[in-house]
Specification:
Number of strands: 8
Number of domains: 2
Oligomer: single chain
Structural class: alpha/beta
Order of helices and strands: EHEHEHEEHEHEHEHH
Radius of gyration: 21 Å
Largest sheet: 5 strands, parallel
């Protein structure tokens, strides 16, 4: 006797990262591929090239919703600008899971991320063990609208507030979306704080590209003094 029941269609899930060039997102891609194999579903991995291409990410959410994918996993570039597109996708029958970076509202199924605020506080606590005598600290922020990094920055500043031997001398400099933009911003920050003359003792950077950009600047002339102070030899 033949089984006339229709076979369920195969799940097709769109995974939309903030960008596709950072090593972090390559790791996320590998995790998505591994999960797809384990769960026997199809994934479509597609995201903006750079993490400041908000229009591209909005277009991707709208495109996948129009294709009626089974679901969307999204790491939003902006905590507010994606809400309308996420709501539209959900109403069109493509449920949305937000990961890595929060969305300030919207019709989502779930939110999956680390506790970024707590991570920032941990960084401040670690700084107090590295520099028990305290010192001057700068925060190199990442990008406005990025909820994950904003929470790390917030947590770090909260942690430093509880360390009376530390003074935050700069917290309004933004690195931008690439290592190149972070390098330029880092050089400006280090020069402004006279890091080469010992005017800075530590820097907090909240993500991959801002950290790499700052490291490059520290190795250059503007940060040589601080670079050596952190235990590194001449570059």
């Amino acid at each position: 006797m033949s089984d006339d029941k229709p076979k369920p269609s195969r799940l097709r899930i769109a995974v939309i990262p903030k960008g596709t060039t950072h090593e972090f997102w390559k790791s996320v891609h590998a995790g998505a591929v591994k999960a797809a194999r384990e769960l026997d579903v199809d994934i479509v991995w597609k995201g903006p090239l750079k993490e400041d291409d908000l229009k591209s990410q909005i277009d991707l959410v709208q495109s996948f919703a129009a294709q009626k994918v089974s679901g969307i996993a999204l790491a939003p570039l902006n905590d507010k600008a994606l809400i309308a597109s996420v709501n539209a996708a959900s109403e069109a029958g493509s449920p949305v899971v937000i990961f890595d970076s929060a969305l300030a509202g919207g019709k989502i199924v779930s939110f999956v991320a680390t506790d970024n605020r707590a991570a920032g506080r941990l960084a401040a606590a670690r700084l107090s063990t590295i520099l028990p005598a305290g010192g001057k600290v700068a925060v190199l922020r990442y990008l406005e609208g990025s909820a994950s990094t904003a929470e790390r920055e917030r947590g770090f500043l909260e942690g430093v507030e509880g360390l009376p031997l530390f003074q935050v001398v700069s917290k309004n400099q933004y690195a931008g979306p690439t290592t190149e933009s972070a390098f330029a911003a880092s050089e400006s920050l280090l020069l402004a704080q006279k890091a080469a003359a010992g005017g800075l003792d530590a820097v907090f950077a909240p993500n991959e590209s801002s950290t790499f950009g700052m490291l490059l600047a520290l190795r250059a002339g503007a940060g040589q003094q601080l670079w050596r102070q952190l235990g590194h030899g001449p570059c």
